[in-house]
Amino acid sequence: MKLEDMILISVDDHVVEPADLFDQHLSPEWKAKAPKLLRKPDGTDVWVFEGKQLMNIGLNAVVGRPPEEYGVEPTSFDQLRPGCYDVNERVRDMNANGVVASMCFPSFPSFCGNLWAQLEDKTLAITMLRAYNDWHIDEWCGAHPGRFIPLALPVMWDAELAAEEVRRVAKKGCYALSFTENPDKIGFPSIHDSHWDPLWKACSDEGVIVCIHIGSASGMSFTTMDSPVDVMIATSPVSIVSCAADLLWSQILRRYPTLKFALSEGGIGWIPYFLERADYVHEHHHKWTHQDFGGKRPSDLFREHIVTCFIDDRIGVRLRHDVGIDTITWECDYPHSDSTWPRAPERLMDSLGGVPDDEINKMTFGNAMREFRIDPFVHRSRQACTVGGLRAEAVDVDLSVKSHGGNAPVSEPRPVTAQDITQQLAQVYASPLE
Amino acid sequence: MKLEDMILISVDDHVVEPADLFDQHLSPEWKAKAPKLLRKPDGTDVWVFEGKQLMNIGLNAVVGRPPEEYGVEPTSFDQLRPGCYDVNERVRDMNANGVVASMCFPSFPSFCGNLWAQLEDKTLAITMLRAYNDWHIDEWCGAHPGRFIPLALPVMWDAELAAEEVRRVAKKGCYALSFTENPDKIGFPSIHDSHWDPLWKACSDEGVIVCIHIGSASGMSFTTMDSPVDVMIATSPVSIVSCAADLLWSQILRRYPTLKFALSEGGIGWIPYFLERADYVHEHHHKWTHQDFGGKRPSDLFREHIVTCFIDDRIGVRLRHDVGIDTITWECDYPHSDSTWPRAPERLMDSLGGVPDDEINKMTFGNAMREFRIDPFVHRSRQACTVGGLRAEAVDVDLSVKSHGGNAPVSEPRPVTAQDITQQLAQVYASPLE
């Protein structure tokens, strides 16, 4: 396959929420209570909600910067590439990168909308959550039909309400739900608890895939505060193995035979090892742990229920049949620092040597179309969906690397630690609002 | 290669300490203060130290039991296969399994001797630790020269004393030290702290390999207390990835170019993915994290410094050149429930289809001989070191599976959870001493 003939659907990107997020989806009374984006005297931007400054606006939205300026620091919209928060600019950046469709995870409300879930006022919580979902589906994804996979945030505090919200957004054409790796870690019943059954039933009934992003339980996980930040970056994807094991041995997959989960940003190269290990553990231990998979192996269940994805993963591509060729999707991670934008097709092509075209197509778009229920070809010709077709529409997009300044995590060139990053994030709150 | 011609060195087994452990290595005054193994009125055995009952005697020493009776429960020597604690019986069990040499991790003092490290009385601590190391080297390993790789416990609370103990045991021919995945988690400076430099320097000077066993930081790690215990069992090996990343990005490997670490019971199939990820992170992020590997990639450093091992790992064997063929060793995990005893050669052979003899030899014994500095051929002919040669000496070993009763973790056949296992362990303390 030629690079320009590839078709790319990215199942893991991120949106930096724009200031007008709540404008169209709340009554004036509720709008007064909604989070507001304010510019502080020091020039940084911050969401303010219930009198408190929230976590920084875009996590790690560094796309387009020189690598020297990566980090968690972008704290002003002036420091962001407009494609981070402006959907029209986003589509232009997708075109420049040859990506026909994208699923975008949230930034400030956290991956599972924990910002709402932690509110005492549950009426406020459900109102904000629904407004967010409506904005995401109607405005962000609705602006360019066929270019985005809508992704709803879950109601974490009430499984019946969660089911109701899933059914509501499914009616609007949203068939993906963001969840958390481990609800127990953020104060909710664990995935082994029958508490969640109404949610799983709704997702199963409506054909909604449950997407679990790395870092969606309690944020960044550090081995120690003096560890180099690279340790956290290197191990974050594979850390989702705990969630994968929880899912495999939960009753959920056995109870809902058509329900699907996606391990977002988890990578794929470790999965053949994990599946072999899972089968070994089952064979070796099930007689005393009283586990019954109805004659199947854990690896069978995994391949029937779990959708995986990768950014750049040569070993995983080599082992694609051991992962499960029909379970693999691709992601770009725009606008975070792991992203391969705007050279994603080139980087990906490098890993695909010797892979037959039909298998490339499964991994780069076919599996994503089926599992996330999106069909870009309804809106554009197949040729216009290819890397070559999209890039032809984006010849005017400025791809030059731009310095945006901002504060570096350390003042001298010494290894950046977990502590440095944590302090850098904490500084967002340190400067006064007025 | 024929099965009977394989030579097997296992770099990860476990000893259940016998009652006479401290008899030969302490003065009468100190012996009075040493841990004592007592039989309680309910028929269970327990180590008592400083007036307290310690964690159960053998962790998960279930070898020879039917799988229905696996678990953390063996709490009486009557329930253990004698090879767990009797070195002569151990060697017979090794012969029956075709294993010529074995390295044995401790049971009741914990993997890094944390039992001693937590004592307030540091004179008591160092005295007991040295006695333990002397017993392990002189009695356990000394009973059958060439059949065991001596493994010392570290002095966790004082890096100068730790270095001194390393030099002391090296003089006795002990070239392996057990350490912890994460000293920070048990109250000591992290591996990124220069605190440990004297220890690393001593290990480097003396050619002592630092062995890091899974679960050596804070014991078993559960996702939630209601998770099936299988989740913990399945993910424990790969959880050492955090320690591997800590080592890679620490200054230790760069500062001590000949120092070696072993990731004990970590498996190997995930390593090619991890190394690719490590190189990606370095390439992508080093300009802002200020990491300098002197022109090398993290994967280069890994293969120069880190020794890996596997029990049964088809994917890992297939990817042996991506792991690093010179870094791979094999383990049996006797007497724990993941062990393949007494059919380890058969199980291993199943994974080795198509692997050239010289590569099999590297993985099953050659790398272990070099990295752990043991030479069984000094003591026996090469033929006598093979699976066939050893099994010929063990024709009278009773390999029948034996029920030993004991308390099951659950009374009815329902999935066993983390909570069940934790309660089962807690029950050890619940019954009175007298």
In short:
2 copies of one chain form a homodimer. Chain A has helices spanning 28-33, 87-96, 114-117, 122-141, 159-171, 197-206, 229-235, 241-249, 252-255, 271-289, 298-305, 314-318, 320-323, 344-351, 357-372, 382-385, 387-392, 418-430, and strands at 8-14, 36-39, 45-49, 52-53, 99-105, 148-149, 176-179, 209-213, 261-264, 306-310, 328-330.
Structure description:
The structure is a homodimer of 434-residue chains. Chain A has helices at 28-33, 87-96, 114-117, 122-141, 159-171, 197-206, 229-235, 241-249, 252-255, 271-289, 298-305, 314-318, 320-323, 344-351, 357-372, 382-385, 387-392, 418-430, and strands spanning 8-14, 36-39, 45-49, 52-53, 99-105, 148-149, 176-179, 209-213, 261-264, 306-310, 328-330. By secondary structure, the first copy, chain A, is of the alpha/beta class. A 5-stranded parallel beta sheet of chain A has the order 7-8-9-10-11. In chain A, strands 1-5-6 form a 3-stranded parallel beta sheet, with helices on both faces. The first copy, chain A, has a 3-stranded antiparallel beta sheet with strand order 2-3-4, with no helix packed on it. In chain A, helix 5 packs parallel to helix 6. The mean pLDDT of chain A is 95. The interface between A and B is large, with 72 and 72 residues.
